[in-house]
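Review box. Two proteins, two foldings.
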Amino acid sequence: MDPLKNSAAETDVKLHFLDYWRIIRIRKTIILTVFLLVVFTTVFVTMFLQRQYCGNARIRIQEDRTGTVFTENQNGFIYNPYFMETEMKVMKSQAVLDKVIESQGLNAAWGQKYANGQTLTTAETRTILEKLLDLRPVRNTALIDIFFYSEDPNEAARIANEVANVYRDYRLKQQTDQIMSNITSMEKGYKDKGEEVRKAQEKVDQLRKNLAISDLDAMNSASTSTLDTETLRRLESQRIEAEILLGKERSLLNDLTNKTAIELRNVIPTAAPDPLLHSYLVDLGQAENKLKSLLKDFGPQSPEVQRVTATVDDLTQKVNDRINGILVGLRAKVDADQAALNILTAEVNKAKTSDTERGSKNRPYYDAKAKLEELQNFARIMKMKIETEYVSLNLPKSKLVEITDKCDPTTLKPVKPNRKLNIALGVIVGLMVGVGLAFFIEYLDTSVKTIDDIERALQSPVLGVIPQNVGRLMDEGAESPHAEAYRVLRTNLLFSRKDEKLNSVAVVSAGAGEGKSTTIFNLATVFAQSGQRVVIVDSDLRRPSLHKFFRVANNLGLTNYLLKQNTLEEVIQPSSIPTLDFMASGKLPSSSMGILSSAAMKNLITELKARYDFVFFDSPPIMGVSDASILASEVDMTIQVIQYRRYPQPMNIRAKQLIEKVGGHLMGIVLNNINMAQDESYYYYSGYYHEYYSKNEDEAEAGKPALPKSKASARRADAPKA
């Protein structure tokens, strides 16, 4: 699988908070530099900015309610945002600002200030005034704050107050002019309307005279009724009453006609009360009761029974006769009422005809009279409106625009620049810009930063992590804290090889300056200090540097042997460590650039593997020349050195691909030049070791027994490291 594709597929990883903190710690120099630059710039600019004062006058405004002085709640405040916004625009209009400029003489004064003594035009002065003037409404009130900024506190207060005064005078004059214009217009209209009323009155009088209309209220009302109309109304009322009464009587008569004699005897006393019938009914009732009582004691042939029976029959006949008489009387009354209704109906129809004829004749008069009343009413309304406008004109208008607070120049303090706010913003902005720049640079930086970057991008294990400022372990000694990092590398390398016969190692890197030579020198030193016979071959023929580590000359070495100028014993040099030997690169003739791919080089590798426990080959950058690829294909194991935050990941990935393409056996990666103090991600690679050795040193100084250095070194060297 292509590691480059793997890295692209696995770059979408979630970041932990510690990853952000790591970036901040690593880029703290950039953050601090940008932060201090922004803060110092802000402080410097703030200290040298010209101080400005703000004059503040406050006014209370109301809408113009001319003509509504007699309405209820005329002084009640209703917040109108459109009115407030409109009036603020008016305050910054040419009509107001030009008067302020004129009254304060700002053309000349600001000409001295802004135009080197040349008098400004009113338009130029107005532009400056608009920029320095600020209007702000007080929320949900009728108050407006007028702010004016100036370097002179007296000028700031004076112009703020003048804007308030000029706007107040402008509103009062505008209202007064409007009222006078309304009065003039209405007086002219009232005069014209009076002439129309006079002509309409003359027409009404002429029509009343020509038509011989008897209208006692003709001068005041056009709605007076005529005699025919009143008669018609009275007759119509009587007709309706007669019709209602006739209907009731006819209904009663029809109801009584359909009842039996017994039912009539019970209903008529209530429906048509009659004293005589009532007397008969009472006597009949008493006689019937007496008859019933006698029949209990006597028989029908009894004289007393017969006498009472005759009385009952007589009274019954009288009752029936009386009921018939009442019914006859009701019929006669219905007929009489019907005749009266017919007469009234005829009279009503006659009155209607007469009223219609008279109304048609007199209609021009009443129309003219209605027109007269309409004109008179309109004239009265106009007169009242004129009087209202005069009242409004004479009312005090101080409430239209009221200056509630004037600006006192003695109380003004500088408002610009706001040093505390500017410095606070500078601190915040500097911190944000610094952190943002750090993260942006980190985003652009595609170099290797963590072990996870290597394992995710290269799909190879990390054999060791080497800190910064590592020197020659020969000088630092076996107990050096840096030596432990190489012992970890040595242990991981030994455990990574699958066969103990694999003992030749080439150290390569993608680019120059990644620490190959230092890594191979110190790693070989650690192997030699553990008692193994080791030789280092400087096969970087173009820019050799290992002879400087051993502090020997580079006159004799690998090239001399490969060109058969010297024997192997002559080109191998001993070192201060008995088990560590060194073969310099020697001088490379320009005609022998491909010498590493020769058979002599392969024989040399075979010979050295037989003589030594481990053979280490230094090499040039694999991306620059082919020498490193040749070595990787000829040795048993290859280690790739990657310097922390130096080259982009694609370059390191391509270096690994080159090793694999030539058949090299890549054992793993060495991450070099780590700043342990700066990057907390690598603390556990060195922190424990430092604490452990510092503790041993303290115990030794306190007189406690400690392991000999040689034994301690051997144990640490042999102990496996994760």
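Next protein.
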Amino acid sequence: MTMASGAPRRGRRGVMRLALPLTIGAVCLWLLAGRLSSLEPAHLWDAFRAVQAPQWAAAVAATALSFWALGRYDAVMHRHLRTGVSDTEAQVSGASAIAFAQVLGLGVVTGTLARWKLVPGLGAMRAAQVTAAVSLSFLLAWAVVTGLACLVLAPGLLPVGLALMALFLGLGLPALSLFVPQLRLGRWRLRIPSLHAIAAIAFFAVIDTFAAAVALHVLLPGAVPFTLLLPCFLLALGAGLFGSTPGGVGPFELTLLALLPQVAEAELMATILAFRLVYYAAPATIALGYAMAQGLHRARHWEDHVPRRHVPRDIPELLLDLAPRSECGLARQNGARMLGTSHNSALVIDTPQSLTLLFDPLCGPLKPLLPRLAAAARSSNRIAVAYKCSARNAVGARDLGWKCLRVADEAIVMPQDFTLEGSRFRQLRRKLRNAEKAGISVTRARQLPFDQMAALDLSWSAEHGQARGLSTGRYDPDYVADQRCYLAWRGEKLVAFVTFHENRQQLCLDLMRHGADLPDGTMHLLITAALQDARAEGLPLSLAAMPARDLREHPLMARLRNRIARQSGGAGLIRFKDSFAPRRIPLYMTAPSHLSLILAAADLALAMRRPAPRAQPLSTRQQASYDGETAKACALRS
């Protein structure tokens, strides 16, 4: 098919999409006119005039509450899409866009245009994304609220199967967010809102629909119970939404007339007319005035407009080089970015439910960063959490009311004090003798044999499963090229290798890879070679994290930790690291509440095991756009 023939076809599809709601509206208006053909205009006018001032005031108050919730709904979606728009701007522009869309119809088109014009820095494409996200998530929330209302308040209004299907959506979406946070549809990737965002969406959807139903209920002259009106209103609202007519005219009225036969037609139509004035015409008029004022303000101050800048993601290499923990070098692979300033900064990484601060800060204490971490997490509908921080920083977090949990121990070996003498190194000496008898030799690599290393990584993955990410590294040639690497040879064959994060403060074990037929003691020999070099350089050596062991903890917790270690294959790793008699340094996880701590722990555990494309390492070592001299001074102070 040529482009010439494809364009008319796309044009015809566009015309059909525009014509469909107009056709639905025309049919519904025709049916409505037939239904109301016997209605006397004088009776309708008398019923309209019967609405009292307190009813109008209550309807206005309920409408204001409903549009407040709609605006908050927009703010949640802006956070989810990370547009950088402030909550206040998102709330006002969102409420205005919805006011326009519900009067003009074609909500996706009119909503996109309104958001684009009210927030020009957003851009047309971003405005369309926000509108689509708001529309889709509201439809899902409406389905859940309507299904629940019909099941509880009016079981006969909706088939039980449809109501249960709606509730299944409500339960399925949080599970999807936790276990499958990103859906791939061809070349498109759909990021599911976080649990925090889903809870906010449900909360504001309930307030919005409840308040809108109250606005209609207070205008009714009869004694229709609210418990009956609410499910009827929700079904009528859905009919208007799916009809896509301006204001839902036609489907909305027909549905209410069918579901509320006990109300006289004149009184019900007068109530709907009053409701449309309060809930549709008044907000649209206010939104029009706001849009005109914004346009005049931008016309007068256009030269003051400063485009938004994205926060740079690159981490200054100097900060990584002088960070208290060399494990911060993971930022070269896991997509971490800097939070804070060059005076007080740390690594943070996004996971589906959390904004996680990794390890101790690059410079400065943790405590001053926590309010900023919480605000940044809140701006993207996530949970704020600090992971693997030291006891000193955990105490600072506890001073702010955050909850702490000991999650691991860092195994530190001081090379100057390391010796193979004594009974506690008996197992290590035996392992080293076995490796030497097998003819294993160790070299510190300058030129890496990437092909053989990749083959070992594949062999290791076949035996142990896919490597975890996030707080540990995964094999990648560009990534290991920035690390210190020790290779174990048996003749000309590479049988194992280990890599270390390296900076001016310490060495930290990262990757350990070997083939299927590994001679006993090979990995011990590799670590011993690294310890000998660390002693010559005067650097402490970290064997990274291992499961926590607290002699004071409850026996039940100790058994649980041991069981998790056995099932995850960590028992052998614990014996391996313990053979070097390391000093255990407690590492903590901290979050604002116990519930946040539990959700963040589950989120991190899933994120570490979830297959994901490897991030592009920062091997070019480009400096971030932060003030280099200030960063250097901060790093030197630390």
